[in-house]
Design brief:
The chain is of the alpha+beta class. It has 9 helices and 10 strands.
């Protein structure tokens, strides 16, 4: 063991670490609350990145997920699902997350830290907006809630070398891993809700089908010569009973041969004036429309 390894941490470094730990706990508390109330956990991720930036100065947060069929190219194709900033949907994913880093995490399924991104992967690997200083990139896997061995995404953030916490990458890895775990739990919870909802809907459909089968076919409706078992006939009969009790004139419209006079007589038979004679009137000429034939009961 070297002298440097055995030398205890300075009071200042211990104080800095203690402050960092408290800020990390505060950030995780806020993030857990956000995911718990989010109807769509992935849509909440940009706000989560803002919390990480505000509390821990982890900047330029990125969530990459495996692409749907037809999206992306190559092995483990991925798309950018969320960022801490506005970006064009047409912009390549490598503009915000180095392709080499994304593939390492997708394939290995373990967290990855590049302490000096430009030195390890080249200057072009550093996003343009972060090239004002050296950058450490922290990336952790996002696992499928149903299959923990399957990596479906990468959660990543950057830390500037100019920041006083640039030497605490182990804490950053733990924080991002916890955030990924919270996101996995939120996704699992939403999936269970969706499955339970679908199961409840299916149970309701089965119950209605069982009740319908037990009741058998609907009983035919009969009213003054009108006979039928369809919902449309049942609704018409119900309307006849409603309007027959009023003293207002009734206008029946329809093509010739559709039974307007039959329905007019049914209305009359249900009305208080049923003892008086019915005088239906053809309104074709009065309306000036040979296709709009009406029957009128005064």
């Amino acid at each position: 063991m070297t002298d440097q390894q055995s030398r205890p941490a300075s009071p200042r470094r211990r104080s800095t670490q203690s402050i960092a730990d408290r800020l990390a706990l505060d950030a995780l508390y806020e993030i857990a609350k956000s995911f718990a109330a989010a109807p769509d956990p992935v849509a909440e991720v940009p706000q989560i990145f803002n919390v990480l930036s505000s509390f821990l100065d982890l900047r330029h947060g990125v969530l990459a997920t495996l692409a749907e069929p037809g999206e992306g190219v190559g092995v483990n194709p991925y798309v950018i699902a969320a960022t801490a900033f506005q970006r064009s949907p047409e912009a390549p994913a490598s503009d915000v997350l180095p392709d080499a880093v994304a593939r390492i995490v997708f394939r290995s399924g373990v967290p990855f830290v590049s302490f000096d991104l430009a030195a390890e992967f080249g200057e072009d690997a550093v996003p343009k907006r972060l090239r004002d200083a050296g950058q450490t990139l922290i990336a952790v896997p996002l696992r499928d809630p149903e299959r923990s061995h399957f990596v479906l995404g990468v959660l990543a953030a950057y830390r500037s070398h100019d920041h006083n916490r640039s030497g605490f990458s182990d804490t950053d890895v733990r924080v991002l891993t916890m955030v990924a775990s919270l996101l996995e739990q939120a996704l699992r919870f939403r999936r269970r809700i969706a499955r339970d909802r679908e199961r409840a809907l299916e149970d309701t459909r089965r119950m209605l089908q069982t009740v319908t089968e037990q009741r058998g076919p609907a009983a035919p409706v009969s009213l003054d010569g009108i006979v039928g078992s369809s919902p449309a006939i049942a609704e018409v009969v119900a309307q006849i009973k409603r309007v027959a009790s009023t003293r207002m004139p009734v206008l029946l419209r329809g093509e010739s041969g559709t039974g307007k006079e039959l329905f007019a007589r049914a209305v009359h038979a249900q009305s208080p004036a049923r003892e008086r004679p019915l005088h239906p009137r053809q309104l074709r000429r009065a309306l000036g429309n040979p296709s709009g034939i009406g029957t009128f009961r005064p």
